[in-house]
Design brief:
The chain is α/β, with parallel strands linked by helices and about 550 residues long. The protein folds into three domains: about 1-85, Gyrase A, domain 2; about 115-375, 3-Layer(aba) Sandwich (Rossmann fold); about 380-555, Orthogonal Bundle (Isoleucyl-tRNA Synthetase, Domain 1). It contains 22 helices and 13 strands. Strands 5-4-9-10 form a four-stranded parallel β-sheet, with helices on both faces. The chain has a three-stranded antiparallel β-sheet with strand order 1-3-2. It has a three-stranded antiparallel β-sheet with strand order 6-7-8. A hairpin with a 2-residue loop joins strand 2 (about 70-75) and strand 3 (about 80-85). The longest helix is centred in the middle third of the chain and has 25 residues, at about 225-245. The relative contact order is 0.11.
Length: about 550
């Protein structure tokens, strides 16, 4: 609806006596709660002071004077101006979608601009659990949204392959590890060692000092510790790539925290030269009290680096390498203070790109009300979750469509899609309690329902042949409702991009699926005698195009048959 909103706003701007610009009017246009009231509505309260008239009088006056070919009728209701769109305009929307295909809804605001996205970024030596779902799928969806809007995107998997936890892993392996067991068990065995370390350290706190010493040796390039660390990283990457393959995710860079170990000193020197670095109980900090934040720790008392040190060095490297217009970090909301601190430090250091750094937080995910924690072993592994979803999908397919070709691949697409859709349905910042049964449900507002609607479109077009060119003739309210929903796609993309909010697309997909299925139930496309309503085929084709693009934006695959 973006184009028609702009057109209506430009016409109204000439009639409102300078009370508002066309851009301001377009932002005020909204969708009436009852379709019987019209397709778009303009609240006129905003113009009362400038035009020195009551809103109801303004609405009535504008209704009398307004005329536009794309608008069938205009009616004043109280202080609102309601617009009903002409069938000719709606028909042209369908023609436009079918003409543009996958290009429909794309935007050009990112043309010539580069966005760096830091997401997923698991800690090495820990397997993927559902706590990693947020950063991974929100991040990849944002990458797809930015690419859809013309940006050149660089996806970075900033592996957590450095830090004190590796001192703990080295310490644990030396005390209780077995090489053959780790080679056979992979990440699972490494996690057992990590969990055991924390259990043992509760009884013997001296283990924490030992772990810190081992990490310090690692930073000093001790060959034995380096060899163990590299082994942990390799085992972890092999495990992670299995999950990424299942999700259809590829990264442009896997440079982790360790890559910046020789790039931090330059930034530490800059902080010292600018007088920003202060000693506090032996640690080196940047005082942020003036900005109502705790101090940002740069070096520990033993000289070891911390997360902010590495993050600053990484940001500088990425700006020098990619010359980004935006650098997006997708992490849990629990890290918001951390990002606010080092973003402010980057500003104080004098880097003029500090305002291009964007933190995209998301809420916590719990299971049965219990917070996830690798150190206690309270996790649900993603691979187990996906296996359960795929198994359930395969059982449903075997029951309802046993002759389906490529059943295993389809079950994989729908099962994984069910989990992703469930997660991306709510606002990213909202805390959520993961419910396995709800996630794998095939009823209601779910991924399988959305994918099945897409497959239904494909099935119809397989029987009817592709849509003819040109605009359809609209003959029912369900047809008009479907077209109006499809016309909202470019707007949904813009809002999702602006707010860094994939759930805008997820919810929009449900709107399209609902509108299409009502149309499908109401309108006969293929008659009993085999004749085909070519006009309605055009609507099916347009729905398939929009659903396909929207599903892709939230990382779901589009099986043609289910």
């Amino acid at each position: 609806m973006l184009e028609i909103k702009k057109t209506i706003a430009e016409a109204l701007a000439l009639l409102t006596e300078g009370a508002a610009t066309a851009e301001e009017i377009a932002s005020l246009l909204e969708y009436p709660p009852d379709p019987a009231m019209g397709d778009l509505a303009l609240p006129c309260f905003r113009f009362a002071k400038a035009m020195r008239r009551p809103p109801a009088v303004i609405a009535s006056t504008l209704a009398e004077r307004f005329s536009l070919p794309a608008v069938k009728s205009v009616a004043a209701l109280g202080g609102y101006l309601n617009f009903t769109l002409a069938d000719a305009y709606l028909s042209e929307v369908v023609a436009k979608i079918n003409r543009e295909g996958d290009a429909y809804g794309r935007r050009e605001e990112g043309k010539g601009k580069t966005v760096v996205l830091d997401y997923s970024s698991p800690n090495v030596a820990k397997p993927f659990h559902i706590g990693h779902l947020g950063t991974t799928v929100i991040g990849h969806s944002l990458k797809k949204l930015h690419e859809f809007c013309g940006y050149t995107c660089v996806g970075i998997n900033y592996l957590g392959d450095w830090g004190t936890q590796f001192g703990k892993m080295i310490c644990a392996f030396r005390h209780w590890g077995d090489k053959a067991a780790v080679e056979a068990g992979g990440c699972d065995e490494l996690v057992k060692l990590y969990v055991r370390f924390h259990a043992e350290a509760e009884a013997n706190p001296a283990l924490n000092d030992e772990a810190r010493a081992e990490f310090h040796k690692l930073e000093q390039k001790d060959p034995d510790n380096i060899a163990l660390w590299q082994w942990f990283v390799q085992i972890s990457l092999e495990e992670y790539k299995k999950t990424y393959d299942l999700l259809g995710i590829e990264f442009d860079s896997y440079l982790g925290e360790s890559f910046y170990s020789d790039k931090m000193q330059e930034q530490i020197d800059i902080l010292r030269d600018k007088g920003l670095l202060k000693l506090d109980d032996g640690a080196s900090i940047v005082d942020l009290e003036a900005y109502h934040m705790p101090p940002c720790l740069i070096l520990k008392r033993d000289g070891s680096t911390l997360y902010p040190t590495r993050d600053i060095a990484a940001a500088v490297y990425r700006q020098r390498t990619y010359h980004f217009d935006k650098a997006i970090y997708v992490t849990s909301a629990g890290q918001s203070l951390h990002f606010a601190q080092w973003f402010k430090v980057v500003e104080l250091m004098g880097y003029d790109w500090y305002d291009r750094l964007v933190h995209v937080p998301y809420g916590t995910l719990s299971v049965g009300g219990a917070k996830l924690a690798t150190r206690t072993g309270n996790v649900i592994l993603l691979r187990d979750l996906f296996d359960a979803a795929i198994e359930k999908c395969l059982a449903v397919i075997n029951e309802k469509n046993p002759a389906l070709e490529n059943k295993e691949e389809t079950a994989k697409s729908v099962g994984v899609g069910a989990v992703l859709f469930y997660y991306l349905l709510n606002s990213r910042i909202k805390d959520s309690d993961f419910n396995m049964e709800d996630a794998l449900s095939f009823d209601g507002s779910t991924g399988p329902y959305a994918q099945y609607t897409y497959a239904r479109c494909c099935s119809i077009l397989e029987k009817t042949g592709e849509a003819d060119e040109g605009a359809p003739k609209l003959s029912s309210d369900t047809e008009r409702a479907l077209v109006k929903t499809l016309a909202r796609f470019p707007e949904a993309v813009g809002i999702a991009l602006r707010d860094y909010e994939p759930c805008v697309i997820t919810r929009y997909i449900l709107d399209v699926a609902a509108a299409f299925n009502k149309f499908y139930q109401d309108a006969r496309i293929i008659a009993p005698d085999g004749s085909i309503d070519r006009s309605r085929v055009k609507l099916v084709s347009a729905a398939k195009t929009v659903l396909g693009s929207a599903l892709s934006l939230i990382c779901l695959k589009t099986p043609a048959k289910i």
